[in-house]
Amino acid sequence: MTAPLAGIRILEVGTMLAGPYATMLLADLGAQVTKIEPPGGEISRKVSDSYFASLNRNKDSIRLDLNSQEGQGRLGQLVAESHALLVNLKPSAIRRLGLTYEALRRYNERIVCVAITGFGLNGGDDPAFDYVVQAATGVAALTGDPDGPPTLPGYSSADNSTGLAAALGLLAQIVSGRGGQVDVSLRDVMLSQLNYHASAYLNDGVEPQRRAYGAHSYYVPAQMFSTADGYLALFITHDGFWKSFAGEAGIAGFETMAERVARADEVRAVVAAALATDTAVSWEARLRPLGIPAAAVRTLPEALKATPEIVVTAGDFRLVGNPIRIADYQPDYRPPPK
């Protein structure tokens, strides 16, 4: 099958994670992505070969000094024959290097220019690394034990989420048939992902709280539980799930969600006592056939071993493949550009 994005030409001036991740997903789906790198190469090449490969497979690369007249001339030629340009730099650098729609429309009226920044193209140049944005938007304050310090997730959730949003914005503007500027910030993406927490505060004045074992603010029981060996994530969202779980765990009562929410501490204690009688892996095996959402906590190596189909080969690198599965299409994974 022809690749879904075959014929789409995208330029990238990206560093580290958010921008390169966005364009890599598009390249996996058949877009021709040309990575514009400065003399000396994009900075993430210096992290490690495997790090660079995890964000830049399936791309071509060209070295341009965008601070030079010659580099700017070549950029104009590339823009003239491309559908989109995606960049993630500070707003001042984006403008100084002429990487906005207003600066590039003279080469191509239909070029789509996507800017990934910390706080928006008009939001200033304050440093906006992933962890800083998680702290600034309330994510860290919601994560961790309530009696402990705020905690950062163990991966770059802001960068990855922003990359996905930027790829969506890029494709949406291409589909519209119009050129233009697309502005995506890490701050806005993370606040958007706090959707129901933000709505509860904005509409009902309910301020979100950090809860033990990551307990959900609406559903009970929906959190981590300690077992005889390991931890189990249990997510009971309606009375049907509860009925099946309670029958398997030997628990009586609490038949409605309203009752479980009203007696949340009591419910959690009863569930914790029941789950402590068996291991997390065993509980998962018992509950899954009943249709109950439950999973033992696994390490990344354990998760990768359990899902070999997600691991792909790109040259000398083994990587996690594209998560978007399209019928009758299989990406051809190429190694990152030299």
From TrEMBL:
Identify the species of origin.
Mycobacterium celatum
Pfam families annotated for this entry?
CoA_transf_3
- Keyword field: Transferase
Name of protein: CoA-transferase
The record's annotation in InterPro entries points to: CoA-transferase_III_domain, CoA-Trfase_fam_III, CoA-Trfase_III_dom3_sf, CoA-Trfase_III_dom_1_sf
UniProt key word Methyltransferase: no
Show the GO MF annotations: CoA-transferase activity
